[in-house]
């Protein structure tokens, strides 16, 4: 009887450890995915801001150089 109880306890402990490891793994996976997503959004926004700034500078330089040529 006590061997069966010890086996049951050991199985429950292993199941609990397995659940804990699954939760930790899932949490880590979600953290990495969310971090990658946030970094991608920030990188895309920085790229768009640089493009917008370059687009604003180019016409000003062209207009300024044409004004100086006249």
From TrEMBL:
The source's domain of life comes to Bacteria
Tell me the protein's name: Uncharacterized protein
